[in-house]
Specification:
FAD/NAD(P)-binding domain; 23% strand; 533 residues
């Protein structure tokens, strides 16, 4: 076993947060950083936006976790894709860029997390982006992450916008601005047809720095300690185990699935979880692996009767060749799209202060969500999830083997609030598509079909057919008190020299896709560490 001591900070995980953190810390040439990533450097398809579908079940780029079967989802084991490349899930995700609502971060602050309110994090969101439509008090124009509005044009999009307005909803020019509510063109981490992962935007420019060392295919097995201080990690690469020490701190950025697993393998967590696997309890911390949340995603598919607007038609046969040529020559077309070119952030009840559901409007229909195979007919999809779910699950080790997948329990739809929001959102999707501006486009409802009509029927269908929206958070909750893992400085309670910076620290779900918030956490962690140094 080798021992290597030559770094100030060791970052475990080169994903959305970890990559941003490593890049920012090494801007100071005196700060030495080791970034350990369990996955590969990259994948040939990752740069192409449509890779979110191509890599969703590819073991070369995806950890391909599965949930435990649960009553809330008809005892199905649901796929849980997570990025297995530098850039983490930002290298394989659907590229939708959503900050969330000011309410989200003010709620974090209200829980006692000082420095995490909206006015605290807004400057970080601005600093990290270059938004193509300009800057101002709300948007940034000089950050590493390039964000653009989907340029794709389609008469179907125009009809959907008009249908939403006819159904009583408004258009919104910038859902990442002051107000999230309305139907919108998606803002995506895409620039000139290329995926803007954190590996590309943050790490690639930092590679020439001599004070940053990146090691891939190097999974961390456990943390190392001197008493109650974390001093380093043990990782494995090409069958060889190496122990490496950090002069200042270790930061876990392995994500909401793997970060609690590494803590538990190192003896930090719930004694009743650790002891049955023969793991000695180094520090009892009951909140590790708890408070898990994710978005449950329900989809409705319609046939499209107008010609030339559905990519089921335009990206089939020779049409697919044409779409490939359009992408290669102009960076546009089917291959350049994020997972949804249109979004809607809506209230299921008028008395709500802010939107509580998000819809994804997609100009094609998928036959197999796991493999992203297109339906054989021209179609469209509208998907919906509740923005801030109340149901709580858990992620815990199932074995002392560090290479074994953890047990993921969503506990979807356990809370009646979640059930009501999802059923109401389902009715709203149908109401928008049923509006008159869609008459020339709307064919029959293919799935689930009009026979699924009552609230009970809809809820039962959601249990049997919904999937995760790929937004796991909360398993190392940030808050004061015993029901938390880290404080507002991201320090792990009871352990010196150890912080966490990834989606696992989120106390509640941001209102929307989580990648932007993850990158913000990495940036915020860099600020905290520089202040502490």
């Amino acid at each position: 076993m080798n021992t290597d001591i030559q770094y100030d900070y060791i970052i475990v995980g080169g994903g959305s947060a970890g990559a941003a953190l490593a890049a920012r810390l090494t801007e100071d040439g005196r700060t030495r950083v080791l970034l350990l990533e369990a996955g590969r450097v990259g994948h040939v398809w990752s740069r192409v936006p449509v890779s979110f579908g191509l890599l969703i079940d590819n073991p070369a780029a995806n950890w391909r976790f599965f949930s435990e079967p649960e009553p809330g989802t008809a005892n199905r084991a649901i796929p849980v894709p997570r990025g297995k490349l530098l850039g983490g899930s930002s290298a394989i995700n659907g590229l939708v860029f959503v900050r969330g609502q000011p309410l989200d971060y003010n709620t974090w602050a209200q829980f006692g997390n000082r420095g995490w309110g909206w006015q605290d994090v807004l400057p970080i969101f601005r600093r990290m982006e270059t938004y193509e439509n300009g800057s101002g008090e709300m948007r940034g124009a000089s950050g590493p992450l390039r964000v653009s509005e989907v340029p794709d044009q389609n008469p179907l999009y125009d009809a959907l916008f008009s249908a939403a307005v006819a159904a009583g909803y408004k258009r919104n020019p910038d859902y990442n601005g002051e107000d999230q509510e309305g139907i919108v063109k998606t803002q995506a981490t895409i620039s000139r047809g290329r995926r803007m992962s954190t590996a590309y935007c943050y790490l690639a420019p930092a590679l020439r720095r001599s004070n940053l060392r990146i090691m891939t295919q190097a999974p961390v097995l456990r943390l190392l300690f001197d008493g109650t201080r974390c001093t380093g990690v043990a990782y494995e690469q090409q069958g060889k185990v190496t122990e490496v020490r950090a002069g200042r701190e270790v930061i876990l950025s392995a994500g909401a699935v793997k970060t609690p697993q590494i803590l538990e393998l190192s003896g930090i967590g719930r004694p009743e979880v650790l002891q049955p696997h023969g793991i000695a309890v180094r520090h009892a911390l009951p909140a590790v692996g708890e408070n898990f949340r994710d978005h449950i995603n329900a989809r409705i598919q319609w046939r499209v009767k107008a010609a030339g607007v559905s990519y089921n038609e335009m990206a089939r046969g020779l049409g697919l060749v044409g779409q490939a040529w359009k992408y290669l020559t102009a960076g546009g077309g089917f291959f350049s799209l994020p997972s949804a070119p249109l979004l809607a952030f809506l209230k299921t009840r008028p008395e709500l202060e802010t939107p509580d559901v998000q819809m994804h409007l997609v100009p094609y229909a998928i036959k197999d969500p796991k493999r992203r195979k297109l339906q054989p007919f021209p179609g469209m999809t509208v998907a919906c999830y509740q923005l801030r779910p109340e149901s709580l699950g858990s992620i815990h080790i199932r074995s002392a083997n560090p290479h074994a997948d953890p047990a993921i329990r969503f506990n979807f739809l356990a809370d009646p609030i979640d059930q009501r929001a999802m059923v109401d959102g389902f009715h709203m999707m149908r109401r928008i598509v049923a509006a008159a501006p869609m008459d020339a486009f709307r064919g029959e409802e293919h799935s689930p079909g009009t026979s699924v009509a009552t609230d009970d029927q809809i809820l039962d269908w959601i249990r049997h057919h919904s999937e995760t929206a790929y937004h796991p958070i909360g398993t190392c909750r940030m808050a004061p008190g015993p029901n938390a893992v880290v404080n507002d400085q991201l320090k792990v309670y009871g352990i010196d020299g150890l912080r966490i910076a990834d989606a696992s620290i989120m106390p509640t779900m941001p209102s929307g896709n989580t990648n932007a918030a993850c990158i913000m956490i990495g940036e915020k962690a860099a600020d905290l560490l520089r202040t502490a140094a």
